[in-house]
Task: inverse folding
């Protein structure tokens, strides 16, 4: 007798294929769910494989457009960076994937959802907090936290043996000695030989970007047009090519960034669950957008609003990284950031060359830049004596600070 129906976040790889069969072995009816968020995947083969392994039903969902518009664009508006460097490509994909998993579970009357995330990583938290937020009564089966599972499968060798015993097709090509996660936003690499933080990344690791040393010697010059803080058009000023739908814009920026080796980072970061991990990321289109948006934002946003918004961007990045996209506090922060973007409108021209993004110029009908006011050659309405008040206030503060320092030094 069935224990119930479970919707499994399924990739078609070794881990989730074994988990699918293991869940059936435990007495569950399994629905396999695979999200297309831009990864290089043979979706038809994955569908056939899930059916052959006994999945009760298989859902393959194309989420690319909503991934860009509903998840990547808010991250662009926020200038989202985790710990000053990571553009959050994996983090931002998880609430998108899990939201559709929950919708399928509700639609199919499934009491359970499951995933193949490791018990040491962040993804288990991101998946599960989304599921609990959107389907409060759901029960989650996390095999890598179930002793009967993780004591049985201590590594890839045990999974391979299980696959052979149960007729699960496995890749005939050797597995790369690291873990990889890919989507439209980025590719991440971690674990395996990368766990030694001193080890350099192998030259053949990167799949999304060319080695900057091997990229063209002449730049691509592009113009990005923004409205309410999100890109609405990209134009290549060199060949006249342009894109104006969200998915096309992002794909094109990935193409240009990848061609010129933009967006590679190698970092050690703090996982939410309390350990440091080494990650290598390549985020070509996202890196171009980060620089362009930052530029148009500073051009059009009030100074004091932007100061508050910077703090909100940091808070948003932490909430996103830690899996709280659907929390009330994250919804509030996103609302505030979106409000701050109402006047972030205009065009940014930039060049992309040898792994770098160079801002060339910008224009906006909502610019707060006053060329006449700032000019060194035109007096305009500005009275230079106005600066004396700022100087006097700060001079008192600085004199007092250094007087006290001098008194302290004399006493020593």
Result:
């Amino acid at each position: 007798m069935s224990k119930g129906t479970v919707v499994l976040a399924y990739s078609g790889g070794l881990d989730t294929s074994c988990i699918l069969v293991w869940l059936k072995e435990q007495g569950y009816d399994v629905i396999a769910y695979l999200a297309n968020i831009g990864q290089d995947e043979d979706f038809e083969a994955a569908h056939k494989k899930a059916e052959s392994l006994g999945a009760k039903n298989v859902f393959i969902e194309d989420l690319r457009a909503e991934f860009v518009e509903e998840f990547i664009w808010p991250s662009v508006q926020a200038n989202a960076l985790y710990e000053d460097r990571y553009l959050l490509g994996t983090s931002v994909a998880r609430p998108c994937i899990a939201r559709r998993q929950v919708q399928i579970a509700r639609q199919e009357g499934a009491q359970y959802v499951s995933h193949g995330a490791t018990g040491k990583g962040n993804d288990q938290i991101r998946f599960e907090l989304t599921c609990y937020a959107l389907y409060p009564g759901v029960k989650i089966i996390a095999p890598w936290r179930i002793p009967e599972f993780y004591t049985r499968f201590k590594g890839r060798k045990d999974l391979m043996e299980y696959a052979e015993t149960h007729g699960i097709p496995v890749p005939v090509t050797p597995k790369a000695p690291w873990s990889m996660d890919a989507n439209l936003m980025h590719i991440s690499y971690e674990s395996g030989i990368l766990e030694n933080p001193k080890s350099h990344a192998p030259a053949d690791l990167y799949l999304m970007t060319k080695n900057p040393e091997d990229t063209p010697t002449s730049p691509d010059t592009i113009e990005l047009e923004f409205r309410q803080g999100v890109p609405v058009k990209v134009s290549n000023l060199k060949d006249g090519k342009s894109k104006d739908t969200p998915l096309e814009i992002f794909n094109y920026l990935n193409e240009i960034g990848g061609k010129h080796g933009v967006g590679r980072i190698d970092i050690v970061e703090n996982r939410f669950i309390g350990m440091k991990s080494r990650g290598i990321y390549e985020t070509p289109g996202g890196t171009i957008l980060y620089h362009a948006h930052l530029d148009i934002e500073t051009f059009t946003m009030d100074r004091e609003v932007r100061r508050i918004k910077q703090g909100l961007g940091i808070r948003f990045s932490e909430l996103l990284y830690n899996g709280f996209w659907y929390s009330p506090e994250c919804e509030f922060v996103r609302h505030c950031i979106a409000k701050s973007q109402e006047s972030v409108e205009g065009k940014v021209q930039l060049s992309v060359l040898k792994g770098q993004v160079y801002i060339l110029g910008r224009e906006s009908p909502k610019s707060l830049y006053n060329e006449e006011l700032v000019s060194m050659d035109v007096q305009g309405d500005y009275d230079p004596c106005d600066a004396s008040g700022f100087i006097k206030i700060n001079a008192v503060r600085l004199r007092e600070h250094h007087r006290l320092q001098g008194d302290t030094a004399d006493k020593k």
Notes: The mean pLDDT is 94. The longest strand covers residues 28-36.
